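worker-3 :: picked Histidine kinase
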Amino acid sequence: MFDLEQMDRQTLNDPALRDEVLRLFVDQLGQALEILRDPMKGKDELQSLAHQILGTARALGARPLAEVAHGIEQEMPNADPAKFQQLLSITRAEAMALLERPRSG
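worker-3 :: tokens ->
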């Protein structure tokens, strides 16, 4: 799900910086999932959330999530929140796995 080369470029090939950015992204995705689970949240909140996730996902090379976030942001009335939620969960799990993997070197 992640383009690791792009992620390394964005974090200046600094493993500590990469891990910090990933931790922040994991937190952001966790908050996003909580918002999506709240039935009182409306289309405006979902659109704002998609915009926030879009920038970070693009920067970290999480293209599938970025594409869905972009679609939600652009086509809100026809957006598929369930697909967005599914990709948020998958991306969050993958980011957590990247944080847990041993570092080489």
